[in-house]
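Please, structure for the following, as tokens.
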Amino acid sequence: MKRTIEPNHKLEPGLSLAIVFVVSLFSCAALFAQQGKEITYIMLKTGSTLVGWIESQTADSLFLNTKHGAYRLAKSDCESIETEGATRGTRIVSTPTETEKRNAPPHPQQVDSKPIQPTSTLVYRFSLKDKRVITGRVASETDDDIRILAESGATYQYPKSFIISQDLLGEFRSESAAIRPTSTSESAKEARKSMATDSLATLHLKDNTMLIGTILSWESDSARVKTAYGAVVVPRSSILRIEMNQSLPHAPSPSVKAVSVADWLNRRAIVHLKGGGIAYGTLTRTLPGDRFALLTVKFGTVVYDIADVESIASEGTEPTGTVSRAQAYSVRGSDYDYNPSRGYGVRRTSVLLFGGASIPMGDLAETSGQKAGYAQTGFDAGIQWYGGSENVQFTIAGVFASNSTDMSTVFSPSSSYSANVESGSWMTIWTLGGGRFAADVAPSFQIHGDVLFGALIGMSPEIKATLSAYNYYTGRTETVTATQESQTAVGFAYGVGFGFSISQFDVTIRYLGGSPEYEIEAKGSSGTTSSSKFQQPTGLLFLTAGVNL
């Protein structure tokens, strides 16, 4: 009589198995935030401003690290040095050494001392490659060179390739429209009478630079001016002339108080910063402490202090009463957003792409019991969108994970039969939504947490078992097989996450869980079938690294 040997097990997750595996994965990123280093603003005597942190300094020089590179600066070239948290506008006064004098860049070549009638009444600010700035009118120009009639009356000639930018300031006026300070006491009195303190003025200095600020006080030999970089004492002997800003064409006298953030809520705007930078975005809301939130394209939502804003303008028209003074006076701003109080911001509205290790937890990783899943460490990949306010945001995420299984020892070893089990992988798709909480702990460094709810789509592994045994009735070794097809189930899912972001890079640990119910069917080689339902608790720990687009 022929005897058929059928396995007496349903080949489903839940069979006993001893499995040993080692899991090791940890993703991290270098912390670019310069903790312990204060942001420093250095205003050079040329009118330029550098922002960074001081690595080291001596009595005569300092080494400044910035976003664009490192600079070694002589302190004699610095107009003022300002550090976050320190007294603003620290004045640097030092006498250059003989070596510094020899190594200093040459002054522009004076090509003609005779009066020259310029070709235009328009006044420009010329930024040169040697970091100097000259204000004047175009005397003449060719295809290669340009001659500039400076405000001092001298004429200089430069190759056009030596000029970085040429910014229009306004139209030339007669000398009577400007006030020229003199050393006589009567003239000083008249000047002080004409220019009351707390007046916004432009000081044209003899080194062909300009200083814009509020006149705080007048002394017999100096003027104290409050600028965007702090209070500066200017010797009267270095002043070429002083102009009150309300008399300048196309640039009525504004002040920081004139910047009305309320006029720009939910509107596209250009924010001109006092340091010369420009931020582009949409003003979303005002914040306590005279701050506002700007939704930018590159860095998401960035918070600015109104005190750090020179003016607000639109790409087209401006609301009544708002003046974009930076368009008339400042050098051209950068095309990136910069927060003076926090540095280059972490994105707050973004799409995050991530991937990493998927580690089974709980019953899914068990190798014994009716709910054991025999899952091993696998991989995951996902995408997450988040957006909202500065600290609380809404998020949507989608994650795919694949975890292989090992059921090679489902049957206990025996001398009376041999068995082989081949199994596929658990595959899960998670679609989740919820809240995201974020907080900045350093410039460009942010910690965040997620609370998520949604759906889990699970696919059970395909299993094929082969059992061979000796049939004593027939005297032959007979083989039987049983298979279980992969099935799909859907269930409720939940999850939590915690991580940190450095600029656009992100590292996050997430735990996602669910318990979908599968309906499986096992088929034997003799044609017999067996069906059953079971719930498979599914818990996965994701260690991921990603990048914000």
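DSSP finds three helices and 35 strands in the chain. Residues 351 and 385 are 4 Å apart (CA to CA).
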